[in-house]
Amino acid sequence: MNQIKGGVTAPKGFRAAGEAAGIKPGSTKRDCALIVSDAPATVAGTFTANVVKAAPVHWCRNICAVGSARAIFANSGNANACTGKQGDDDVSATAKAVGKALGLPYKEICVCSTGVIGVPMPMDRLTQGVTACAQSLAQDGGAAAAEAIMTTDTVPKEISVEVPMIKGTARIGAIAKGSGMIAPGMATMLCFITTDVAIAAQPLQRLLRQAVDRSFNRMCVDNDMSTNDTVLVLANGESGIPTLGPGSSAYAAFGSALASVCEEMAKTLVRDGEGATKFVEIQVSGADSNEDALAVARSVATSQLCKTAFFGQDPNWGRLACAAGYAGVEFDPNRLAIRLDDVQVFDGGMPTAYEEKDAAAAMRKPEFVVALDLGGGPGSAVFWTSDLSHDYVTINADYRT
Amino acid sequence: MNQIKGGVTAPKGFRAAGEAAGIKPGSTKRDCALIVSDAPATVAGTFTANVVKAAPVHWCRNICAVGSARAIFANSGNANACTGKQGDDDVSATAKAVGKALGLPYKEICVCSTGVIGVPMPMDRLTQGVTACAQSLAQDGGAAAAEAIMTTDTVPKEISVEVPMIKGTARIGAIAKGSGMIAPGMATMLCFITTDVAIAAQPLQRLLRQAVDRSFNRMCVDNDMSTNDTVLVLANGESGIPTLGPGSSAYAAFGSALASVCEEMAKTLVRDGEGATKFVEIQVSGADSNEDALAVARSVATSQLCKTAFFGQDPNWGRLACAAGYAGVEFDPNRLAIRLDDVQVFDGGMPTAYEEKDAAAAMRKPEFVVALDLGGGPGSAVFWTSDLSHDYVTINADYRT
After folding, report:
1. Residue A18 and residue B227: Cα distance in Å, rounded?
2. Is the distance from CB of A185 to CB of B305 less than 8 angstroms?
3. Residue A149 and residue A172: Cα distance in Å, rounded?
4. CA–CA separation, A239 vs B210, rounded Å?
5. Is some CB atom of chain B closer than 8 A to the CB atom of A330?
6. Of A14-23, B73-82, B184-193, which gets the smallest average pLDDT?
7. Set of chain A residues whose Cβ sits within 8 Å of the Cβ of B334
8. Minimal CA separation from A39 to chain B, in Å
């Protein structure tokens, strides 16, 4: 698997665009993105588990249930969440406008939104955005689309790879946004993935679910789950590689590459987390099961006290042991061991005779590993998190005011 | 029920002391507390659910399993957590020192600690603290004891009440400490309650469990559960009121008063939360069950985004709706209503036409109510929380360094 250029337009048969429509009053930044497959494509998606779902989430879930899509239209600046029946009507009107502009059935147009919530979508400006995107669709439009879905992100996020297969080369491209649950208070993680392999909707959904479970579901900035979170993948078969069937080595190779792409995008989101100054990989081993390990990793990764210690560059094994201890997982605290990068700071339930300066040096790095060994079974898990900084508080205390 | 003065020494037959022993090197503040019942007393306790438990927690749990105690000795400045077998030995040595100084069996001496973890207890200085406390025990020593258990608390925390009963007056006193999980990363919520009613250990344990479930288990500053959290109640019967038996009205009256005392202490802890500038009562109604309501209230109360919005005085109903939505509780988002004090900001799943200035005015107050009505069944719950401020980050990022 090699990285290549192009983002979502790297796979064959995809075009994209990003245009400015002024969705957020007064803004002149790109805020409308369009990704189109030139050929019919299968689609799969994963969505927020929040009971409070934005209107576009319901729309995309219905499309994924059928399994065919030709395009994804997304806007930033307005999340179309908590907008009642009007919100649903606006989503289908948007899909119809895109379908008309492209000459495609509107029920194959995915629609996604991110931004402020509780505000009706400015449909006049959004429709202008649809028209502008349809006109500027290009084979090198991936970067513009990546830019158009940004909210408080400080950098656009895209990746593309090629995967050598026995009968040709598959490509996967992705763009994503999200650096916290922003805009007033929730906003969104969005990730759009394109690929030119041929694969039926159901196995594609299965591979996406696996990839998301090992990537976006293993990261956090602030642990607040948005109303709009959406990951979509379109597969259009334009690579010419025969259809990937479950059980084949090509299917496995594609699934593995898809998981890698999702993992890279998830890490990119954490690195650009709101106010983040650190990227921390939490590794848990020695648990009775992978589920137990994941619970401990999540507990440490989401602890406010651990995250402020990361920000303070404080080798505070006490907070790490404590957060592990309240994860709801049984383990023998007298066998607990903790490592900060390669510095063993805790072993057998007690601090080691480590050098404070070595531990502090590990944490001064912008990226480091926190490894917890529970001293039990073979279960393990990895989780990515950021620190909790003054900037996080500033960004989120002052967002609307 | 009337408030009276005296804290833990308000009930008859209790004396207390608080002395400085320099547990934390260089400190001259009071750091050793002793509470003694002049007569034999029953004891009940609730303890941290953290798998990683400090040595004193194991000690006190064993005493509560038997049900008889005469004294509580507590120190701040060192949590005696993650200290291995030495930690256990130090606890029993402390109990023996107290027992010897008071002429009481050491297995009836509760020992509690709070402060830095992973550091062996300085037993020479602690023993001096035991001696000093035993010498200065006094009927008005409650305030000194309250002061001695403080760590990052900005105010000592005590309360005492008298409860008129048919056959006399019962008194309950309490002291508590805790303003976050401090000292490197965990430290402690401690609450010691005294009462002069006569009640067997088992019903006392039941009443305490109920009181704690409705008070300390319904508050949060940062949602990190410490290794040392302990609530103890001693009942010595010195009021002369006949023994309270389950089912009697006196038993119910005492249980209710005990719950009120715990609730007041819990609120006091939240008000003094690390960096807290706001005290927020989360009220949830219209849930299918009280458990569901509690889960939603806890989700809102612990959301970093909601807590930063409280700090920013931002009437951000979006974050409130979002945190309710990911609580793991099913409800119809189209029936959700949200109120900030008396300003209805959200109804029927959408924002109302409220005046922004009214909502902002509610949140500028140091204490306010956030009420969420899920629009379903009769389940309800209350939870108390603070805001997430710059000072919280400063306090916790810089604690050890």
Report:
1. 52
2. yes
3. 19
4. 65
5. yes
6. B184-193
7. 84
8. 37
Q: How open is the CA angle A108-A112-A116, to the nearest 5 degrees?
A: 155
- The minimal CB distance from A52 to the residues B311, B325, B388 is found for B325
pLDDT for A224: 59
- What's the pLDDT at B218? 82
CB contact under 8 A, A397 and B226: no
pLDDT of residue A117: 81
- Inter-chain Cβ pairs, chain A and chain B, closer than 8 A: 230
pLDDT confidence of residue B180: 57
Structural contact between residues B352 and B345, judged by C-beta atoms closer than 8 angstroms: yes
Tell which B residues from 226 to 265 touch A, by Cβ distance under 8 Å: 226-227
The pLDDT assigned to A38 comes to 97
B16-55 core/surface letters (b: 16 or more CB in 10 A; e: else): bbbbbbbbbeeeeebbbbbbbbeeebbbbbbbbebbbbbb
pLDDT < 70 stretches in chain A: 179-188, 221-226, 398-401
Residue count of chain B: 401
Q: Determine, for residues B51 and A317 on separate chains, whether the beta-carbon distance falls below 8 Å.
A: no
Contact list, A225 vs chain B (CB under 8 Å)? 322, 325-326
Q: Nearest Cβ partner of A322 from B224, B303, B346?
A: B224
- Between helices B123-136 and B84-102, what is the axis angle to 10°? 30
Judged against a pLDDT cut of 80, whether residue B107 lies above it is answered with yes
Residue pLDDT, tens place only, B228-264 = 789 999 999 999 999 999 999 999 999 999 999 999 9
Partner-chain contact B51 A329, CB within 8 Å: yes
Rounded CA-CA distance B41/B67 in Å is 8
Show residues of chain B in contact with A292, CB under 8 Å: none
Q: Provide CB contacts within 8 A for B150, sequence distance 6+.
A: B29, B76, B156, B177
Collapsing DSSP states into helix, strand and coil, what is residue A343? strand
Provide mean pLDDT across the span B33-46: 96
Residues 6+ apart with CB under 8 A from B103: none
Q: Which of A327, A389, A400 sits opposite B393 (nearest CB)?
A: A389
Instruction: Provide CB contacts within 8 A for A268, sequence distance 6+.
Output: A157, A159, A176
B352 is catalytic: no
C-alpha A393/C-alpha A375 separation (Å) is 36
Q: What digits encode the pLDDT tens for the residues A309-354?
A: 999 998 989 889 989 998 989 999 999 999 999 999 999 989 999 9
A346 contacts B52? CB cut-off 8 A: no
Partners of residue B180 in chain A, C-beta under 8 Å: 305
| Cβ-based neighbour number of residue B67 at 10 Å | 15
Interface of B with A in 44-103 (CB under 8 A): 49-53, 81-84
Helix (H) or strand (E) holding B383: strand B379-386
Closest residue on chain A to B312 (Cα): A397
B304 touches A: beta carbon within 8 Å: yes
Q: Which residues of A23-34 are buried (b: 16+ CB within 10 A; e: fewer)?
A: bbeeeeebbbbb
Contact flag B313-A401 (C-beta cutoff 8 Å): yes
- pLDDT, tens digit, for every residue of B344-377? 999 998 999 999 999 999 999 999 999 999 999 9
Strands B337-340 and B367-373, bridge-based pairing = antiparallel
- Identify which of A223, A144, A287 has the alpha carbon closest to the alpha carbon of residue B323: A223
B227 min Cα distance to partner chain A (Å): 7
Task: Collapse the DSSP code of A379 into the 3-class scheme (helix H, G, I; strand E, B; otherwise coil) and give the result.
Answer: strand
Q: Are B374 and B336 in contact (CB under 8 A)?
A: yes
Cα B201 from chain centroid (whole Å): 20
B322/A50 Cβ within 8 A: yes
**Cβ-proximal residues to B180 (8 Å cutoff; 6+ apart), any chain:** A305, B152, B187, B221, B222, B224, B273, B274, B275, B392, B395, B396
